[in-house]
Amino acid sequence: MSWVEGAAGSPYGVHNLPYGVFVQAGRGPRIGVRIGDLVLDLDGAEAAGLLLAGGALRRPTLNAFLALGHPQWTTVRRRIVELLTGQEHRPAVEPLLIPLDRVDLVLPFEVADYVDFYSSEQHAGNVGKIFRPGAAPLLPNWRHLPVGYHGRAGTVVVSGTPIIRPQGQRSTPDGPVYGPSTRLDIEAEVGFVVGVPTSLGQRVAVEDFAAHVFGVVLLNDWSARDIQAWEYQPLGPFLGKSFATSVSSWVVPLEALADAWVPAPTQEPAVLDYLRDVPHLGLDLRLTVDWNGDRVSEPPFDGMYWTPAQQLAHLTVNGAALRTGDLYASGTVSGPRRDQVGSFLELTWGGAEPVKLSDGSTRTFLLDGDTVRIGATAPGPDGTSVGLGEVAGTIAPAQPT
Ligand SMILES: O=C(O)/C=C/C(=O)CC(=O)CC(=O)O
Ligand SMILES: [Ca+2]
Ligand SMILES: [Mg+2]
Q1: Minimum-distance ligand 1 atom for the alpha carbon of 329
Q2: Are both 352 and 208 inside the same structural domain?
């Protein structure tokens, strides 16, 4: 049990300890872990010799720490638990705790490459029906490989960053026009953060997932559906998604999610050998989507067809190298019910069925000033809950041209 006030019973107790990067009092970015509603300054802790990570915790991003690898991640985590539970450490550690409301959280790691998958059968089926009416909703490859696209790492932003409405081409009956997107949407997703790199030509086997992936973030793959629908054939998403992708401030280590693994849906037909993961496990993360404060959806992550280990094996099967800070996202998380979908495209069925918010207004896609918050929890040890923080963003008007 932690001696930190408010830690016991919190989804951010010593069973969680997500990593982030904060700025406070005019000082440069520092690495910290969240405990309750406080952040433990790990830069200060390493400087004081309270824990040892070869200086990796004294950097402005998590990347050097992510590169250390699994044994070191475990050693540091155990030491942080000791510091936050042993009364003898309290005099030295307590001065390093800062209330969360006194810090600003920044992007926790420098994003190397960014990939986004398409692994929810419900989402892929719904988008297929909306984008390609009359055609089979799932394309023939979908059950044989985790479909994905490469996104734009440089426009990954931390939760809270305003999202400027993108402008671009959209198709009208009179031909293409240029202007602000009129169908701006969200995609509620889970992102996986790679720590340990590989070299060109090397592949990561499904069973080596935990040796490379450090942890998870919540992710919103903002999507301009009008730009996307016009540009995407045949090469896939481009400017309709590359204008911004938001991630949560906290990276939850996989070690905090040990109790959240559950059997993933049965795959039929059987997958090729390099994709076969035994056991075939997904994560029981329960997402929430709030639109201007109204809960509009609760997407369940445990139904995802492709697992994160399969996604990583596929991402590297051609010999593509991994870099520390690589980020790959699950794809939009949608369950079978309308109140479980991860996009407003699905929630409003392509804009045909507006939703009513509690202020009496209705929505199809996002209006300027709208705020979306995506949160999640997972089961933790001994009946506890693990909080994944949130990824939030507010829509700012398109920039004048
Ligand atoms: O089916 C399509 O043409 C497009 C699909 C998407 O927009 C989804 C995407 O970004 C992948 C995902 O989040 O599941
Ligand atoms: Ca997406
Ligand atoms: Mg995006």
Answers
A1: 13
A2: yes
